[in-house]
Design the sequence.
């Protein structure tokens, strides 16, 4: 409507081109439901006073046939802002949209065919030990990001890259061999670089009873890697995360990919020899110094297989790739991108200079009983994902299998929501005591309780939610219902913006705000009133709120319980 008013004004007065007007939601509710600053934008080019231009636009708007249906009032504020208050019919329309959209409400494709594809690589833990809380943050972030992108019509491929080659894997094999020889951490002959966790003893014990058992370092290595991969799979299952593909670093050597990459880069003059090593000219692509590719002993530095791996991603058709990694990987970004630019030059690929995208997260500190927890007996020097889920769910040894499963679900929900609820690039303090609290201070409980409370009200009513489609929503006129309607209408934008900015924490914030608006409404407006029409209108609003809570929690990988 604003666009039509602008074009009409421009034609009438012989003015310039008309840009598409941008609408915004004012932060202060008192400023109305929607605001536009187009008059301020155009006043200089059109040589008009912004308030006069705004007034002319409003007058043209008011003559449009749909004006009264959509807009209750509009006013010119400050130097030329136009603030609109929407009509009750416009505000309440979102309830019908949510009830008809159901579990697809807020999504771009609404269950249709995807319009694009992307790969998200996350967790990618070395198979040298159990998954730690940093991997947990990656798992929560990566999975939520994948779900977010899916809401925007993107088919997402989830990939886990196993660094199953290199020095750390060799140290793992030596550690298990030392345990097999009866050594333990602290003994005189215990290898200096060995892993000290109790899990090394578990691997040694399992290996002794396996058919492959013999004192052969390569066999020990293969068994230990397979054992830990299985353990990590169990952790991921407990955490509710699945992958489409597990990609092995070792395969990049066996299929010749690493050798081909090095040859490609050498053939275009992107490398040079110095001090017995092969260097990559990463300074050509903005790095602060050139980087060693092949050391003087003939072994490759760790970013070389990374370049080969990302060339494989591009070759498999993934033009949109997002890597979720710890902030300690920051230094590898420039060299991986530089290597890829060289490969692209050689192979005629049009790889963007910013390929791949990165989401880097900072460390997680775990607090329990008011003190920082630094070690787990099993892992040796860090808290594992399994520890975090079990502690946050209150799992105890004496629980029945059913009780344990419920406790693990509580723990999984708390860990996922907590780890997503902060920007990835901020430090995070995970408070186990807070995760165990069943009150409003616990953010995941607060959101889930809103869903459960609505479920309880609808059950108490006893009717069918399909009957709510015909409710007279014009009766929703209170301040509390107004706030709730505004919040519900924001949900599709929240998904779109969070996906575009790779920021799932924005959805966690939104769900807390939505739960808060619901609780305020519940305390202000009785729902199960005697007036049948008013009751159905309020129940329709609650049913829509429950649906959005459910949809948002699902994106974060958190359950939406019907009772708590």
Sequence:
């Amino acid at each position: 409507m604003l666009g039509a008013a602008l074009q009409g004004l421009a034609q009438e007065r012989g003015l310039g081109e008309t840009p598409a007007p941008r609408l915004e939601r004012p932060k202060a509710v008192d400023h109305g439901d929607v605001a536009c600053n187009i008059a301020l934008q155009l006043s200089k080019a059109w040589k008009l006073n912004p308030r006069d231009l705004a007034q002319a636009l409003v007058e043209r708007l008011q003559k449009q046939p749909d004006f009264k249906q959509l807009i209750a009032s509009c006013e010119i504020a400050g130097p030329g802002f136009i603030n609109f208050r929407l009509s009750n019919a416009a505000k309440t329309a979102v309830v019908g949209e949510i009830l008809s959209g159901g579990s697809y409400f807020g999504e771009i494709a609404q269950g249709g065919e995807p319009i694009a594809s992307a790969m998200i690589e996350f967790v990618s833990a070395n198979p040298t030990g159990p998954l730690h809380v940093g991997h947990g943050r990656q798992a929560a972030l990566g999975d939520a990001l994948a779900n977010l992108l899916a809401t925007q019509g993107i088919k997402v491929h989830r990939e886990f890259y196993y660094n199953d080659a290199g020095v750390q894997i060799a140290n793992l094999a030596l550690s298990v061999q030392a345990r097999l020889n009866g050594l333990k951490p602290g003994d005189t002959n215990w290898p200096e670089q060995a892993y000290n966790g109790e899990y090394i003893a578990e691997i040694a014990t399992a290996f002794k009873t396996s058919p492959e058992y013999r004192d052969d370092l390569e066999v020990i290595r293969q068994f230990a890697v397979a054992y830990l991969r299985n353990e990590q799979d169990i952790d991921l299952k407990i955490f509710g995360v699945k992958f489409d593909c597990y990609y092995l670093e070792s395969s990049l050597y066996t299929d010749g990919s690493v050798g081909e990459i090095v040859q490609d880069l050498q053939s275009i003059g992107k490398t040079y020899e110095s001090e017995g090593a092969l260097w990559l000219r990463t300074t050509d692509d903005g790095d602060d110094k050139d980087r060693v590719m092949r050391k003087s002993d003939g072994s490759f530095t760790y970013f070389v297989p990374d370049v080969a791996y990302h060339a494989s991603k591009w070759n498999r058709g993934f033009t949109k790739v997002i890597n979720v990694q710890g902030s300690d990987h920051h230094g590898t970004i420039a060299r991986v991108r530089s290597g890829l630019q060289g490969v692209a030059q050689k192979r005629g690929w049009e790889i963007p200079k910013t390929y791949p995208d990165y989401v880097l997260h900072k460390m997680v500190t775990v607090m329990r009983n008011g003190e920082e927890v630094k070690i787990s007996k099993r892992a040796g020097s860090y808290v594992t994902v399994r520890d975090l889920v079990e502690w946050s769910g209150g799992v105890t040894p004496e629980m029945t299998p059913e009780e344990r499963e419920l406790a693990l679900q509580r723990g999984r929900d708390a860990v996922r929501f907590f780890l997503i609820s902060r920007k990835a690039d901020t430090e995070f303090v995970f408070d186990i005591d807070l995760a165990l609290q069943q009150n409003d201070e616990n953010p995941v409980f607060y959101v889930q309780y809103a869903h459960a409370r609505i479920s309880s009200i609808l059950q108490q009513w006893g009717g069918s939610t399909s009957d709510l489609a015909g409710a007279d929503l014009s009766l929703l006129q209170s301040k509390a219902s107004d706030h709730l309607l505004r919040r519900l209408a924001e949900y599709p934008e929240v998904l779109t913006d969070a996906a575009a900015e790779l920021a799932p924490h924005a959805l966690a914030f939104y769900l807390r705000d939505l739960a808060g608006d619901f609780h305020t409404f519940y305390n202000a407006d009785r729902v199960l009133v005697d007036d049948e029409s008013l009751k159905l209108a309020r129940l329709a609003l609650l049913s829509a709120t429950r649906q959005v809570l459910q949809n948002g929690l699902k994106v974060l990988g958190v359950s939406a319980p019907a009772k708590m």
